[in-house]
Amino acid sequence: MNPLETTPQIRTLATRLTYHLIRGDQQAQAIHAYAAKEIRYEPLYEMRRKYRTASETLEAKAGCCAEKSYLAIALARCAGLDARYVSILLRPAPPNDETQESDEDSDLETKLEPRGHAGVHVHLKDKVIFLETTDTNGYDRRPADDELLSYKEITDDQVTADFVKRNASPEEVIEPLTPKDVIIQAGNEVAITLAKRAMMVCLGAGLTLVYSCVTQPSAFPAAPPPHYLTLDK
Q1: pTM of the full predicted structure?
Q2: Using alpha carbons only, what angle is made at residue 77 by residues 75 and 80, rounded to the nearest 5 degrees?
Q3: One pLDDT digit (tens) per residue for the chain, 233 residues
Q4: Separation of alpha carbons 172 and 98, rounded Å
Q5: CA of 61: how far to CAs of 39, 127, 217, in Å?
């Protein structure tokens, strides 16, 4: 199955978004605005389902970075633009951006996995525009070089092969998550730092989160009993 395949609904939407605009930059901006604003972003940690095609993403009005990119590419191509999928690998996020890292923080960061990401290139006559479909301010805003481990365009055949591979293991597919309690247990300072960062992400995604701080006597000799703090959106 080709995740970039267009449908009458996608072609109609592309016409509505771009018919009155000058071909090129203005059309690309309109498509980016739609994908970024009208399609709700579902972070990868929420993904417990098969990947959606461009048409399925339009129907669901939600998708991860790859799915939003599928839709943006399909819309751009219907408008006559040369749009291509960009596969991105970002460096691991540091445990805490606001405080000086301890040796333990640094050791943990090296163990964190790189973050997969996706975007869109639109090739115009005189330039290449990058569409960051997860950010409403992401028109022509490519990730900074120091964030990147890899950044490359891939062919439609590669996009389709990756899509099929991602959806090939039904035993790994679970029903989509619905907003519910998320429980995080933290056992040391580094884990607590990461837990607090995850709390903010979950709250931003509209989830109710329960934070469980379970301290270890070896790390905190005078630690109080475990306590729970419930945060609502």
Answers
A1: 0.68
A2: 115
A3: 899 999 999 999 999 999 999 989 999 999 999 999 999 999 876 667 889 999 999 999 999 999 999 999 999 999 999 999 999 999 987 665 544 444 444 444 445 678 899 999 999 999 999 999 999 999 999 999 999 999 999 999 999 999 999 888 644 444 444 444 444 444 445 555 555 555 555 555 555 444 444 434 333 344 444 444 444 44
A4: 36
A5: 5, 30, 47
Please check whether residue 1 lies inside any domain of the structure: no
21 and 113 share one domain: yes
Question: 92 is in which domain, residue-wise?
Answer: 8-172
C-alpha torsion 199→204→173→40, nearest 10: -170
